[in-house]
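How a chain folds remains the central question behind the approach discussed here. In the encoding step, the backbone of a single protein was reduced to a row of integers, each denoting a local shape. We regard such an encoding as a compact summary of how the chain folds. The sequence in question and its structure tokens are set out directly beneath this paragraph:

___
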Amino acid sequence: MFLLYNSGIALYQAGIKLAAKWNEKAGLLAKGQNSSFSILQDKIIPGQKYVWFHASSLGEFEQGRPLIEELKRRSPEKKVVLTFFSPSGYEVRKNYTGADVVVYLPMDTPGNVCRFLDIVKPEKAVFIKYEFWANYLTELKKRGIPTYLVSAIFRPQQAFFKWYGGWYRKLLSAFTHLYVQDNSSEELLKTIGVTNVTVAGDTRFDRVAEIAAQAKELPLVEAFAKGRRVLVAGSSWPLDEDILFDYFNSHDDLFLIVAPHVTSESHIEDICRKLKRPFARYTKTDEQYAAQADCLIIDCIGLLSSIYRYGQIAYIGGGFGVGIHNVLEAAVYGVPVIFGPNYHKFREACGLIDAGGSFSVSESQQYVTLMDKLLQNNDYLLECGKNSADFVNGNLGATDLIMHKLA
């Protein structure tokens, strides 16, 4: 099976190099992996103790970040190597100061794995949520390096639980301990004999609580929102915006902050064309003009997690596409959260709905009915917001539980 796996890795690596000629993401990955070993050799300090964290992409990094930063607080003498597989993670966080070294993960070939571990010599390895690289896991176990999986979710559809999944199940034996998000994951793992498991929850709850505590003061947004009932639409896509704008354009008692997922000039101009009420662009206005607008368009990135605090209702985009974006960033501020129909793979979204703090809409009329109810019944609005906050607060603590072993 390893022969077949390694052949697949080789083909995948060749495909990336070929695609790099015309695909920007593939180009970044190929170039980044080529430079990984030179960065490691330059920055790794012999004799220092390193803990290796691996995140596939940006979302997994956000789950691992509380652990990295808590490790640094508890054991400042320890060094951290952070690896990414996806350019969408590395290119955003390559300058993250919480880690001592940040690189692309070298491709999972036997030669790369041994070279990587020989240079880093990690005393522990932490994989975040997913990523089951067979050669890395096998070599870590062979070298006796404690290896942990954190914030993981397991589902019956995964190969581990299929009749043909014996080889995949053996990979799980490489982990010293598995920290899973929910009881169902623990029960599934028991069915295949994996018992070194702790239900710790999701470290993202700790992360969003930390973000909220450190939220930026945004005077321009505050000037816009002061004394108004505001809906904050975060990471919106055109299908989300069609529903949002139809309602907004016909309801003068509602004010809107929209932070689209794509902030290209063409998309911002499309948003401007759809709005029938006065609007202002964040980067092209001042506090006085923003206070006179009915809609504030956030045409830049990096502010959304702080902006949610200025709304009474939040809408999270992506639910009419491949899946919703981060609902917890809004829920932590104690506001009702609305999103589209594609949310079922997101445990936190399902939990928010069950808690009464969140709602899914699949078409325009559902959204109209829900918004009318929230805006016309202030007690109901406040109750739903409290449910959101209670849900987040009730799920804090995963970081401390996991750190009990990691530190």
